[in-house]
Structure formats: structure tokens, C-alpha cells
Design brief:
By secondary structure, the protein is an alpha+beta fold. The chain has one domain: Gcn5-related N-acetyltransferase (GNAT) (Aminopeptidase, 3-Layer(aba) Sandwich). Helix content is 27%, strand content 28%. The chain has a seven-stranded mixed beta sheet, sandwiched between helices. The longest helix is centred in the middle third of the chain and has 15 residues, at 95-109.
Length: 158
């Protein structure tokens, strides 16, 4: 098991992981990353400056990932934690924490001062993890994520 930066050849695997989780957990498909064009082009979507996407690889298979990118249409010192999803067979084994650690360290090294995220209200375990890491709930959304179904918004200082 290793965490590494995404490569072009990972695109279809991480898209499959993300979309299968939405089906598995019966999450909303509209107003979420399920319908984002970025989800089909993950490598390309994280090639800009101050952006990175990490994947978890196990025996040659991508099993999850998460990324950091500037929060669109917001203060450039604020990043967004994006598309953090892990396949069912790896959940509950500490990989989410490792992935989040990689993302937050990368965000700090890129000079971001705050990290914002949006998630679905159904994802209680994810919210608990974010809260443990110091994320606080916000009443309103920030930036322009396009994720109208994500009713939970959180932020933390870096």
C-alpha cells in the first residue's frame, strides 16, 4: 500500500472508485463530484500550480484518493480539499488519515493559510474525521464549487 501523486494512467481507476462509492452509498449524483468533468480527467485537473491529487495504490490498483487545489473564486490563500474517496475494502484502516495528512501537509507547503471542504450530510464518518482534524462547520458555502447537493461545509486554519 502506498500513497503517491496521481499519474495519467490512473484516471479511469480513480473515476471508477469515486463513482462506485456514490452508487454503493446511494448518494446524490447531481450537484456532486459524480457529474464533474474533472472526475473523468483527474490527472489533468491537478496539473496547475498549487494543486496536487494523491492516490492510494494497492497491488497496482488505485483504491482511493484526495486532492488540494485553490478554492475557485475565493481568496487565493484558501485551498479546497477535493474528491476524498476510498474504496470500501480500505475504509476503517487508517488510510483516510494518511491521505488527509498528505493533503494538509501539501497545502501548507504550497502556502495556503486555510483549507475548505464540502461534503454530503450522509457521510457522517468523513465529517467526524474532518472534525478531529480541526475543521469547523460553516453556515454558508464559499467559492464556486458547483456542488449544490453538498450541504456540509467546513474550514480549518493551516
Amino acid at each position: 500500500m502506498r500513497i503517491r501523486e496521481i499519474q495519467f494512467n490512473d484516471n479511469s481507476q480513480i473515476e471508477t472508485v469515486i463513482k462506485s462509492i456514490f452508487i454503493e452509498l446511494q448518494l446524490p449524483l447531481t450537484g456532486t463530484v459524480y457529474e464533474d468533468v474533472e472526475t473523468t480527467q483527474m490527472f489533468e485537473s491537478y496539473q496547475e500550480e498549487k494543486a496536487v491529487y494523491f492516490v492510494i495504490e494497492h497491488e497496482g490498483q488505485v483504491k482511493g484518493g484526495a486532492g488540494i487545489k485553490v478554492l475557485d473564486r475565493e481568496d487565493p490563500s484558501i485551498c479546497e480539499l477535493q474528491k476524498m474517496y476510498i474504496a470500501a475494502d480500505l475504509r476503517g484502516k487508517g488510510y483516510s488519515k494518511q491521505l488527509l495528512d498528505c493533503c494538509l501537509e501539501a497545502a501548507k507547503s504550497m502556502g495556503y493559510t486555510q483549507c475548505y471542504l464540502e461534503t454530503l450530510s450522509e457521510l457522517k464518518t468523513a465529517q467526524k474525521l474532518y472534525h478531529q482534524y480541526g475543521f469547523k462547520y460553516l453556515e454558508t458555502s464559499m467559492g464556486n464549487t458547483g456542488h449544490s447537493s453538498c450541504g456540509v461545509r467546513m474550514i480549518k486554519p493551516l
